[in-house]
Design goal:
The chain is α/β, with parallel strands linked by helices and 263 residues long. It contains nine helices and nine strands. The protein is globular, with a radius of gyration of 18 Å. GO terms for molecular function: S-adenosylmethionine-dependent methyltransferase activity.
């Protein structure tokens, strides 16, 4: 994260070159959150505010914060209305009152967080039936040219590998599987009711144990074990259910892929 705080960091260039997220991602998050209040959404580690801008039409108020002053300085505003940008870390949300936020999102940012501090803050600021959505995407993939994908990944992990800050980069490459949750994931009858709201969802039926070694829970006070889902997407952008997670959390890891070579 220190890269984004440097005086030489080109926030305007970042704004124009950073990948955005597919519309279906927001459909999934909003479908999961259905039934919760839509008064206030918060984007933490917001960067230039891609997620904040996309959520703006769906909430009465949208706030966004990032540790980098340069990121906040290029924060995207809607055509009408206003997103409240501020400089701040996910570990310190003291500027927000308790029970004041309905939806919290973090796009390609959760790998930077100290979750021993973030989860207690989220438990404090979220209203009942609130939702947390951690979103991430994996490495670039040439969907019709697997050899090109292999060459690209060899370059990224070989010659360029030493330039990636760790452990953040490895957490991203693992699609946030190493991010600890505040409670152990459980599966109950509420899960199907939640999933029925998610559009175009395909259940893989793959057992949890075959997908991931769940990290031990951390900072679980204030969280109830219950039903929710980890959602990943195929290269075609189809959302796939791969495992349950913790109550009031939708941990959406969309493997954001682009075909850069002609078929």
């Amino acid at each position: 994260m220190t890269t984004f705080a440097k005086s030489s960091f080109d926030a305007a260039g970042y704004l124009t070159s950073r990948p955005t997220y597919p519309a279906k991602l927001y459909d999934v998050i909003l479908a999961y959150h259905r039934g919760g209040s839509t008064t206030h959404a918060l984007d933490i580690g917001c960067g230039p505010g891609f997620m904040a801008r996309a959520l703006f039409p769906h909430f009465t108020k949208v706030s966004a914060q990032d540790p980098s002053e340069k990121m906040v300085s290029v924060g995207i505003q809607p055509d009408s209305g206003h997103i409240d940008y501020s400089v701040g870390s996910a570990e310190d949300m003291s500027s927000l009152p308790a029970n004041s936020v309905d939806l919290v999102v973090a796009g390609q940012a959760a790998h930077w967080f100290d979750h021993s501090k973030v989860w207690p803050e989220l438990a404090r600021v979220l209203r009942p039936k609130g939702t947390v959505a951690y979103v991430g995407y994996g490495e670039l993939e040439f969907t019709t040219h697997p050899r090109a994908t292999a060459i690209f990944r060899e370059l990224m992990r070989g010659d360029l590998g030493g330039y990636w800050p760790q452990p953040g980069r490895s957490i991203v490459e693992g699609l946030l599987d190493r991010v600890p949750f505040p409670v152990n994931p459980t599966l109950n009858t509420e899960t199907d009711a939640l999933l029925s709201k998610v559009p175009d969802l395909e259940k893989t039926g793959i057992p949890i144990a075959d997908r991931i070694d769940e990290p031990p829970p951390i900072a679980g006070e204030g969280w109830d074990a219950g039903s929710a889902v980890r959602i990943k997407s195929s290269t075609e952008g189809r959302p796939l259910v791969t495992r349950p997670i913790a109550h009031n959390l939708v941990h959406s890891d969309f493997s954001h892929t682009r075909t850069l070579l002609p078929p």
